[in-house]
## 1
Amino acid sequence: MADDLIITVQAPAAAEELVLGAMSMAGLDEVEIRTVEETGTVLIQAYWPADLGPPPTIDLARVPGARRHPDRIVARDTWAIGWPSHQIGPVRLAPCLAEAPPPSAAPMTLHLMAGQGFGLGEHPSTRLALEALIARPRPVGPRVLDVGCGTGVLALAAMRLGATQAVAMDHDPAARAAATTNAALNDIDLTVVDDWPTTLADLVFANINPPTLRSLSAALRSALAPRGHLILSGLPTADADDVARAFAPLIPVRFDRAEGWVALTLAHGE
Ligand SMILES: C[S@@+](CC[C@H](N)C(=O)[O-])C[C@H]1O[C@@H](n2cnc3c(N)ncnc32)[C@H](O)[C@@H]1O
């Protein structure tokens, strides 16, 4: 089996566009970008299939502080090609640079197209929302609404866990495109929309910043079916109680916490 390559360039965050330009000139248009906050740098990776011949030269001469790491060899059937994949309860999130997931994927794996939309599983707010999803009583669903869907990760995971109908909504067209791609990549039926649906959902997600959550509180409450759950994420610890109050008369039934972030599960009182 041929060995493929992962090409990695590290550069100051301010030079990201210059690196992307240089990589694009070298024929590397599909990349995955990760921020390394401690050093103020970005790591930009691309996948180079061995069939294409030797890896290209990337001209980084005009990008101050940029350096190319030694190319890394990966076996062709290695599906988590770039970053470590994230295992959250029974859901594994695997970054993907190819249009089709490799056939070796485990049944509970979600493939998410790298570099498109927020929500590849690396951020605590996404992971906490998934943990809250996994922790809630089964079966999930049947109807799910994911407000601020980004990659669609939350709606797609809910579908993997037993929901039968999912609507993903985002005001950003790039996020909607990412969610549509990821639904196809995972062969999941997902309705992607730019406005609030009129039907109620048994499970509603919203992983958005606190001011937006407060402003959307009435709409989110109204979208929730009587015995449903609303999972809010994206809450720095200091904001969690205040956001919970903005959603009264829904009551908090669960708090998931990690790394200074909180996900809050709310339900109607009896
Ligand atoms: C933090 S990301 C969450 C992505 C994904 N749901 C996750 O959990 O990883 C927030 C998303 O909400 C979207 N968003 C922010 N405000 C919104 C609004 N008022 N209506 C719809 N989408 C919104 C953004 O475009 C972004 O994709």
## 2
Amino acid sequence: MSTDKIVFDRVTATFEVNGQPFHAVKDLSLTIADNEFVTVVGPSGCGKSTIMNMAAGLLIPSGGEVRVDDRPVKGPGPERGVIFQQYALFPWLTVRQNVEFGLKLKKISRAQRNEVVERQLELTGLTPFADALPKTLSGGMKQRCAIARAYAADPSILLMDEPFGALDALTRVHMQSQLLETWRQEKRTVMFITHDVDEAVFLANRVIVMAARPGRIHRIIDVDLPAERTEDLRTSPEFTAIRNEVWNSVYHQDPPPEAGAPAQHDPPDDPGGEGDQINKGIWSPTRHHNPGP
Ligand SMILES: Nc1ncnc2c1ncn2[C@@H]1O[C@H](COP(=O)(O)OP(=O)(O)OP(=O)(O)O)[C@@H](O)[C@H]1O
Ligand SMILES: [Mg+2]
């Protein structure tokens, strides 16, 4: 039996921009093993959120396929918990009800729901705000609520798009340690997108560095550091060496040939032609914000 958890098999995401096809991601292949923790970094617009949305089942690839547990992804599923780049809370539900949402869908008993919800609220420091509506929360608090909701449903896969971006430095470090602790205790597969190179190295087994136009994998860097990630590690020479390697491969990439151009077109000999369709509105902003079950 395969230990591959998530497989991106030559996936392409093509959008129509100004009437022309634009490859947000092209022919990208990546296999994430069961219980692996990978982080994804790369310049803005290189397709990080696009590949995460494909794994989440919110965006159907124009070419190739994504498989989770050997089955092609056709839509969202409860085994995949998603934390979006933008806060995706139900505005009409309180913090507690947002966190409880997935548990209700799973028909978990009220007593058990309460126990899980209280633990997650405690973990994310939201207990005092349990009865508040999202509109009254700060950005960081909203994000912590989205994290609590994803963790509460206990998915085997966590797809996290810059989940800690809106947090203050101290909370961020705390949430990083907490996530690693949860990952160690109850093994799960994590795909974590970030712009923070230190965060990418601190958390991961492997760092996937992407490049833009078209979105693709530029390099994969193994993080050969002890499994136990302590705060001291952040200043060690081993950590710094890997951090510098990731930094250089993200920020010293060759500029794309048509940098600044609004869209990039198929070269005449584009092999992606066969079965390569254009996504028109399959991934609307509304769907992007929809947290799903
Ligand atoms: N629905 C869409 N229609 C047209 N173009 C799109 C659509 N969604 C994404 N794109 C384009 O695809 C490219 C990749 O977008 P994506 O959101 O995946 O980037 P990203 O790597 O997550 O960037 P960031 O780091 O800024 O979040 C961008 O050029 C973006 O403009
Ligand atoms: Mg993004």
